[in-house]
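re: that chain from earlier
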Amino acid sequence: MGAALAIAAAALVLAAVLYDAARLARPDEARRPPLARLRGRRAALEAAETWCAGLRIHGRIDQAAYQ
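^ sequence. v structure.
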């Protein structure tokens, strides 16, 4: 019983790791600008706006997603 529980827990952890790796490896994944949260809320909003404007300029997101 204990071994089955350990195997199930290990499988769940492995599935979570693989999911995160696949999600981060997608080319259309919009990552947050680095250190935005450390500088405060206003700076984070400005950094996110700059980041989204850059994505919009390079055609990685459409107008609806930008708004």
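The mean pLDDT is 78.
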